[in-house]
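Thread: quick sanity check before group meeting

JM: Hey all, I'm pulling together slides for Thursday and realized we never actually wrote out the predicted structure for the chain we discussed last week. Dropping the sequence here so it's in one place. If anyone has concerns about the input, flag it before I start.
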Amino acid sequence: MSESGEQTFDLVLYGHDTVECAYYLCADPGRGIDFEYLGLERERLRQTKCRDPKVVKLGDTEFLLQRYGSSSGFPFVLDNADMTIQCGEFNSPSFCVTYRSQALWRDTAPVLHQRFLEWADRLGFRHYEPEGLSRVDFTFDYHLPVVDFDEESFVSFSSMDSKHRRDRKLRGVAFGQGDVRLRIYNKVAEIAEKSAKVWFFDLWGRKDDVWRIEWQVRKAVLRRFGIRTLADLAERQGDLLRYLAGEHDTLRVRGEDANRSRWPLHPLWVDLQKQVEKFQSLGEQHEVDPQAAIEERLARIGVSVYGYLKRVAALTGEQRAEESVSLWSAFERLRNLVLRVHHPVSWKLDVQSRRDELRVGGG
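JM (edit): ok, ran it. Output follows.
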């Protein structure tokens, strides 16, 4: 709250966090992707029961080939730092591409879309009909020090809602589960507990009290607003967002009226509706620190190893009837335990496999 008692908040970032798009492409004779090769490599992964994906190079681009197909019926799933591609020789559409969060904030959807088309063109693929968007996530990130609402403060067309609490504090609420889903949640907590997308801190310019307002919109509603292609999205997403923030879902200040739709709009939602009017482009490019996620993962590993060292110290002290076991004694004991299972050949292969995942998959 401000000194005057008014709710304070500040928009720190807005844009697209997920974009899914289907592509209808066919290959020139003798060109395209060698699907037989992909099938053999995928079967080899299955036979060896290898959990790690395999790095494959298609044209001039590396991907991680997963050992499974997709739930939507595509036999092959390929990942890299920019996108996840579901594809198959006889599928229509031939490619279903999900552009990844970090890539979207770094390069924007049009840049990634063009990059995919140029890659497909170099392989010998051609359009036989325009692309079709199947999902777009619109996000508005607010610095929100005080949360004075819950699920009962919302008026929504969605009949289903849910809430998430931890330590008796609200972490998020959600409405809907089909063509439109609204989520309002503590993004800082989500990063700490799940996604590890610490590079958002640099984009926000802060590390605390950021809540995300996010609409996941799928094909049926996109089509209702005439949004099929990326060009349509650029032209018509403002109309869609005005509907979402003005009619489909609103946040209200609790009042005495039994009809919640007559409660006044929450100041946060008033600001959101103003921001929607500015959401006319397909995003801005941002500088993303590629080392931030690595540092965060190393820090988490350090915390985990420190916890295991405490267990090693406790077990060693109990085993040897020692009053106290030092950190360095626990390190030495853990070192000896690790050396028992260490195998130089598998170590080299497994480390290289994980480096490939970091290099190609971005995570």
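AS: nice. The longest strand covers residues 125-143. The chain has a mean pLDDT of 89.
JM: adding both to the slides.
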